[in-house]
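PROTEIN DESIGN WORKSHEET
SECTION A - STRUCTURE
LENGTH: 219
TOKENS:
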């Protein structure tokens, strides 16, 4: 997966992520996250690096920070553990579910994306519009979307997806409205079916939980 515009809340910054993820048995894999703008990038530069490897393991992910971070944070540790929850969206399935929940979902037309012929679909889903049932979605999927809207703090999500001739997602673009501003995400997918190695968890004695860093200036 290549997410060149993985931007969450413009005031906070922008990041580019690239790597390999699998989601058949829970999200797992590795990404390299590069902070490219805003307060995120400034903070990372102050801490000595603007790019960090991340490991996704079961219900958490880990980001490798710099030696300076280990010193400044007072933890002496290089890895930060983040809980993985419903507010994080890396899988293709959720984008399709959001589109199915959009009352204005429509086919835009055919387009080429990175040399691949695709069909472009677009629509906007809202938290308020998830009150009843939706054709194509199970009750559990609708409940999962409600949970995502709540945890992510999103009120409205515009979704665009580009699907190839085999029905596989090639590109997705989402624009979410939240109380803190606008969240923008663009991701490209390829090489479906590639085996994904589940990475090892970092050493416990070199890992600190993000919840324990609440008073520390971190991204």
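SECTION B - SEQUENCE
RESIDUE ASSIGNMENT:
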């Amino acid at each position: 997966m290549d997410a060149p515009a993985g931007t969450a809340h413009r005031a906070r910054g922008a990041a580019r992520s690239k790597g390999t993820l699998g989601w058949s048995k829970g999200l797992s894999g590795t990404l390299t996250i590069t902070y490219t703008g805003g307060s995120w990038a400034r903070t990372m530069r102050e801490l000595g690096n603007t790019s960090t490897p991340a490991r996704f393991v079961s219900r958490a992910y880990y980001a490798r920070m710099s030696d300076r971070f280990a010193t400044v944070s007072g933890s002496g540790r290089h890895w930060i553990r983040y809980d993985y929850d419903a507010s994080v969206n890396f899988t293709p399935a959720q984008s399709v579910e959001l589109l199915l929940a959009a009352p204005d979902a429509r086919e835009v037309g055919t387009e080429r994306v990175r040399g691949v012929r695709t069909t472009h679909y677009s629509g906007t889903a809202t938290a308020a519009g998830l009150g009843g049932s939706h054709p194509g979605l199970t009750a559990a999927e609708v409940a999962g979307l409600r949970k995502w809207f709540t945890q992510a703090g999103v009120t409205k999500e515009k979704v665009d997806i580009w699907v190839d001739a085999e029905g596989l997602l090639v590109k997705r673009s989402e624009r979410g409205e939240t109380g803190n501003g606008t969240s923008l995400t663009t991701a490209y997918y390829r090489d479906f079916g590639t085996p994904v190695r589940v990475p090892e968890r970092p050493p416990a004695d070199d890992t600190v939980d993000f919840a324990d860093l609440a008073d520390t200036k971190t991204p």
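SECTION C - NOTES
The first strand starts at residue 2 and ends at 7.
Helices lie at 38-46, 67-72, 92-100, 139-152.
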